[in-house]
Please model this.
Amino acid sequence: MKIGIVGGTGDIGEGMALRLSPLFDVMVGSREQEKALATCTMNRELLRKRGKECSLTGVGNQAAIDGADIIILAVPFKHLVGTLEGLHGFEDKIVISPVNPMEKRDHFTFVPPPEGSAALLVKRLLPQSARICSGFNTIAANKWKALDEDLEYSVPVCGDDEAAKREVMGIVNRISRLRAFDAGPLAASCMVEALTPLLLNIARYNKMKDVGIQFR
Amino acid sequence: MKIGIVGGTGDIGEGMALRLSPLFDVMVGSREQEKALATCTMNRELLRKRGKECSLTGVGNQAAIDGADIIILAVPFKHLVGTLEGLHGFEDKIVISPVNPMEKRDHFTFVPPPEGSAALLVKRLLPQSARICSGFNTIAANKWKALDEDLEYSVPVCGDDEAAKREVMGIVNRISRLRAFDAGPLAASCMVEALTPLLLNIARYNKMKDVGIQFR
Model:
């Protein structure tokens, strides 16, 4: 199974590639292929030092979509529409949105688009056959990259295509000690996306770092 | 310190009284004082069987406000406005809103009032000197009542009055193994209230019961 990361050289994308590439074939996409190649070289080195094999290919964002079965949109909300408008080929593919629409005022606030959530916005912009799920919304970039730490978090996954959702949950459950939870249809993704500004507020007001969640 | 529970004979209020009355003086309020007295008798009996002393007084909702320093609004969202319209005397008191505005469609959805959250609606309805916090939003009624179980959950608390928020967090931290977290100003309470429909969806779609959260 090939996983393509659109925005794979960003903070989150880079960490995702580190955790995913020992388990799956990962295509790291970027607007500039050179940056993607550099990220792959760096990640390969980091993993080799830990004695881990990995499968990493640095490509442009479009090639990451064309070459993969599952695509992760590791893009900040403010660049989501612009990024998707320049790309195509999402037909029949599983597309994972970890995107959280939020703003920092004096505190962090969930500010969804008119569709209700970033995942629903993705659904509107992509072809109808794209199998969209939200997932990985609440894992901080630093935690993705902290390879010596277990990721002991719960990961809510939303989606309207049950088979796609099961596949995404299966991927989640293979990464470190993440545990996937079915959080319902894509229409319920707003409540998942609202978790991230909440967790950023918890971190800020309690002097913590990279706060995550567990359901129990 | 006296805690008054408006709606103290409802599902949540009854359980709160069970957990709070061995620690604090609790005034269980109800629209009908007889119901409040019956709840107190039942709770006293349940606690006595476990060898626990408690301080419980059954009163009307107005008397629970008048007699207490801290008031918990244990009222479902749909009855919140109606209940508050019939009550007064909130001046200078700490008022805790555990209320979650939500609807069950095919899944549970956060449906906030125009103010942005139930806590902000409470703020608009009560006198300016009332010191409003949101808190206890995500603890399920069954868990409040399950006296043989520890409550190992995180409890986000929002509020604009820092001293009131610290006091509420202190109360939270005395109950079982609950741990309070400052979740920012009252304007951030929408993200806390949205947790409950999320947790209900997690329970529903993963065949779980009374799901709670931990920040970590």
Notes: The CA atoms of residues 153 and 212 of chain B lie 6 Å apart. Chain B has a mean pLDDT of 97. The first strand of chain B starts at residue 2 and ends at 6. Chain B touches chain A at residues 106-110, 152-153, 156, 181-185, 187-188, 190-192, 194-195, 197-199, 201-202, 204-206, 208, 211-216 (CB under 8 Å).
